[in-house]
Amino acid sequence: MTGYGWLIRPLGLVPYGEAYTAMHALVERRLSGEIPDTLILLQHPPVYTAGRRWDPAHLVWAEDAMRAAGAEFHMVDRGGSVTFHGPGQLVGYPIVDLGPGRDVVSYVRKLEEVIIRAGADAGVPGLGRNPVNSGVWAGELKVCAIGVRVSRARVTLHGFALNCTTDLSWFDGIVPCGLMDHGVTSLSDQAGRVITVEAMAPTVAAQFEEVFDRKLTPAGTEILPGAAPLSLHPA
After folding, report:
1. pLDDT, tens digit, for every residue of 176-185?
2. Is the dihedral of CA 140, 127, 20, 15 positive or negative?
3. Residue ranges of E strands in 44-197
4. What is the model's pTM?
5. Which residues are catalytic?
């Protein structure tokens, strides 16, 4: 591999606001050249996030109902509309310097490729792309949402959310990604067996290494509280 990077893998559930702040701080450090490209892999407690193109019509539940159900609601600075994050979902925040070319479309395609390959490694073949909408799909059902932003036309933030054992009933509170005619699914539902976040995290990290040509080195608690080393190549 020609490059290197950091892998940050906090254990347990990381509050969304904490991860959001850390992600933006790391982007500033990447812009200054202080750190290498970095991949954060984590889980959040239940939270709904609305991107810059969100539409209030995409909220099926009012914010009060979301909070009563145990979920937070955050307005965020990524693209796209409304999505859900929660336990059983592997969330990835790649902080990558795209260089002067800033090919965002190619970057999103690489993220999709990472998930498609990781799904195949986990025994879930047939995942693919939608000709119109970003993300990774199982037919007409989205298994992984992708929403990104590029800071100062160069460094990426936000990323992807892969449903592993996610309780999909949480998506009843929104129109996921603003797509009225499409539903959501999980790797576990597609495989007919349980595929956990813990099983998928090293697989996704290993495929990220391959697709982005970066050797990842685990980084720990000085970067994000609760982070712990993660083996990229489990037995």
Report:
1. 755 556 789 9
2. positive
3. 47-50, 72-75, 82-85, 89-95, 136-138, 141-151, 155-163, 183-184
4. 0.91
5. 177
